[in-house]
Amino acid sequence: MDEMDRKIVNALQEGFPLSRAPFAECADRLGIGESELIERLKVLRADGIVTRFGPFYNAKEMGGGLCLCAMRVPEDAWDSACAFVNARDEVAHNYRRDHELNMWFVLAVENEADIARVAHAIEAETGLKVHLFPKLKEYFLDMRVAA
After folding, report:
1. Please, which residues bridge with residue 67 across strands?
2. CATH code at position 86
3. Does residue 21 share a domain with residue 78?
4. Listing from the earlier edge strand, what are the strands of the sheet with 65-71?
């Protein structure tokens, strides 16, 4: 990352304009062209420096639901279980952990009742128990990471 990449990452953590030309607006604030900003973001994503670029929505306020889930996946079943879980539209992200419950993922659904339905479908396909860890309380940390 060069100095401009750092400025971009830091600036975009502070918000993204809701306008007809948000990239142009951001680029103008950074003193670069819109096409340069977009190209730099593509490279930051491709290099894995930025893993996600997009909004966070409060699914519950929109009538939907989120649930943290975990599974105990045997090593010899990891690839197939991971491929199946990741192929689900409802899976927001998935992480491998060094723990008895070694696969952790988040379900994001349009209707909170769909959490159980999707979890059961994953169990039926993989033959593995899906443990549900619903959010009991919301904490907003507003964390920023300086680049």
Report:
1. 107
2. 3.30.70.3460
3. no
4. 91-96, 103-109, 65-71, 130-133
Domain match, 69 and 42 both? no
Polymer length in residues for the chain: 147
In a domain, 110, yes or no: yes
Q: What is the pLDDT of residues 69-117, one digit of tens each?
A: 999 999 999 999 999 999 999 998 899 999 999 999 999 999 988 999 9
In this structure, which amino acid lies at residue 58? N
Q: What is the DSSP string of 63-114?
A: T-EEEEEEE---GGGHHHHHHHHHH-TTEEEEEE-SSSS-EEEEEEESSTTH
CA distance 73 to 127: 10
Domain coverage including residue 9: 3-46
Q: pLDDT by residue (tens digit) across 38-57? A: 999 999 999 988 877 777 67
Residue 76, token pair as written in the block: 């010899």
